[in-house]
Amino acid sequence: MRLINVTNLKIEEYFGTDIPEYAIVSHTWDATEANFQQWTNRVARLRKSKLPGYAKVYKACKLARQEGFRYLWIDTVCIDKSSSSELSEAINSMYAWYENAKVCYVYLSDVRISSKENNMDVLSLFRTSRWWSRGWTLQELLAPDNVIFYTREWVKMGTKYALAVLIQEITGIDEGYLRGIRRISMCSIAQRMSWASKRVTTRDEDLAYSLLGIFGINMPLLYGEGSQNSFRRLQEEIIKVSIDQSIFAFDTGSSDNTLLAHHPRDFAAQCRVRPSFARKLTLPFTLSNAGLSLKTPLIQTLSPYWVLAVLNCVELHWAQEDVKARSIICLPLLGRDKKYMRARAPVALISLGADTVGQTKTPSAKTRYDKNIADTQTVGKDSDTSTPENASSIVKTMALEIQDLTTRNDTEILVSYFSRIYPLYGNEMDEAMKGFAVSEMMLDSNTTAPEQGFMLTFPRGMGEYRCLLSHPSTDLYRNISFFLPSASAVPVSEVDGRPHPRHNTLPGQVTRGLLVFAHSAIGPRMRSITFGDNMGLVGIYLALDSVTGNWTCRIIDLGIKISITASDLEGKARIGDAMVLGKPEEWVHYDQAQNVVVAARTRFETVKGKPCKEAIMVEIVFDVKELVEERDLE
C-alpha cells in the first residue's frame, strides 16, 4: 500500500501489519488530477501545485497533518495506474483500505460556500453533489466508520453519523448502516444492489468493479469486457459464496438474460428486500452452463406451464419507521416438468403478502384454525343453500387470519434460458404465452380491456380438488390461470325483494363471478359421501368494484351436488351478491370454511396491461388443517 508522508509529501510503501495509521480521501475526479508519476517528480509537482487536482492533495495533507496523522492515501497519486497488476490489486483491496482508515475526508468540489449563500443553499448543493452519483464513492461512504464531509473551500460540513438522516434521504441507505448500528454484510444482495442502481462510472466495467468490496468479492479485472460481462461475472462470484436468493429478485424488463441482471438498476425497486425471517435453512443452489439449479417451494396455478418459485427473502413494508408487514418474493416461471425460464408476463416479480407485524399477541396457527372452524359451524347451520335467499351459507370473515399460506416442501427445479426451454414444448408453450394477449382479443371484439382481474394460485397445490367450471364460463382463462369476471352483480333488491338501506351500487359498478372446485370423490353418480374436514364442492365468489378499486373473495359450500346450468350457477353467485353489495365491511380479502381458505391480499400491475392492467393474486388452500399443524411445529 502506497501512502503519502504528509510531512515531506513523499510516497512510501508499506505491507501487511507494517501499515501505519492513515487518513484517506474520497473525491470526484476532474481533468487536472495528478498521477503517481507526476507526484513523485518534485519539479512537476511544484509547477502544477495551483491546479485544482494538485491543490486538493496539498490541502488534504495539511488537514491530516493538523489532525495528527503522518500519512494520507488518495487514489490519484497512491496507485501506479501504468501497472495493470497494481491497479487490479488496488481495486480488489480498496474497500479494506477505506475500512481500515482512521478518518475519511470527503471532498465535495461542487459544494461551494460564499457570502451570498445561506445554510439552505449549502444543503441543496450537498444534496445534488456529483459525489452521490459516482460508482466508486458508494464503498467510500460505507466502508469507513469515521467520514467527514468538506466543501470546496475545505470547510467542515459534518460527519456521516451526524448527517445520517439526510444521507438516507439522498441515497436510500438506511441510517442504521450509516451509523454502524447494523452491519453491511447483513444486508440482502438485492438491497445493496439497489444502492448502486443510480450510480455511474467513467469506464463501463467499473460499475461492477466498484462493488467488489461491498460484497466481499475478489476477481480479476478485464477492461474491455463491457459492463454486462463484468456485472455478470460479479454475480457469478457472489453466488459462489452466498446463499442469499435475493440476487434473483431483479426486474427482467431490461435484460435478455433472465438468469442474472444486466445492471444494478434492475434492482432499483428492491431497497426493502431483506434476508428471510423464516426458520428455514436456504438450500444450496448452483449456476452452471445449463442454468440455475435450486430447491424451493413452488406455488401452482391452473396452467401446467405457469408456477411461482418462492425465494427465501422478504420485502418489508414500513409505516412511520416501523415494519408493518412482510412479503415473500416470488419469481413467475414458465415451463414444465421442473424445467423453467423466468417469465416477463404478467409480471417479472411478485411480492406476496406473508404477515403483518406489531400485533400485541400473535395466536398460534391452531388457535386461528379452531376459532375459524367454530365460527363456520355457527354460520348457515341447517340452512338450505340451494337458493339465493339463504345468503347465510357464506362463511363470515374471521378476525384471525392464517397469513402465510405457502408450502414448506421444496421442489428441485432448473431455471434455464429461453432458447433452451421454449423448444422443449413447442406449440403448447405458444398457446400458454398467447393467453396474455386476452386484452387485445377483448379490444378486437369492441369491448374495453379490464382494469382488474384475478390471478388464481394454489400455494399448497390442488390436492384432491380440480377446477370443475366457472361462471361466466368465458371469464376463466385456464392457460394463464386468470379469472376476469364480467357479469354484473345483482342488486340486493332484485335478490330478496327488499332494498338494502345502504345499497347504492350502480349497474355495472360491481362485476363478479363464481369458480367451482370439486373433490376427486365427486362423480356423476355420487349421492352422498363423508368428507371429514373437506367440502365436496367448493364455490369461490370473486368480485370487483370498478369505482372504489376494491375486491373481495368469499367461499360458498355447494354440498356435493350442483347443476351446471347457467341459471343455477347464477343463483349461487347471487348468494355472494347479497352478502357484499351495499356492505363495505363485507368486502374482505380472506375467507375460511372447514378445510378451505381463500385469500386475495396481493395486487400488482401487469406488464403492458395484459391480460388486465392490475392483477389481484388469489391464494386457494384445500388442506388448512395440515397447514396449521405445519406452522405450529415451526
Automatic annotation (TrEMBL):
<feature type="domain" description="DUF8212">
    <location>
        <begin position="230"/>
        <end position="266"/>
    </location>
</feature>
<dbReference type="Pfam" id="PF06985">
    <property type="entry name" value="HET"/>
</dbReference>
<dbReference type="Pfam" id="PF26640">
    <property type="entry name" value="DUF8212"/>
</dbReference>
<protein>
    <submittedName>
        <fullName>Heterokaryon incompatibility protein-domain-containing protein</fullName>
    </submittedName>
</protein>
<dbReference type="InterPro" id="IPR058525">
    <property type="entry name" value="DUF8212"/>
</dbReference>
<feature type="domain" description="Heterokaryon incompatibility">
    <location>
        <begin position="22"/>
        <end position="119"/>
    </location>
</feature>
<dbReference type="InterPro" id="IPR010730">
    <property type="entry name" value="HET"/>
</dbReference>
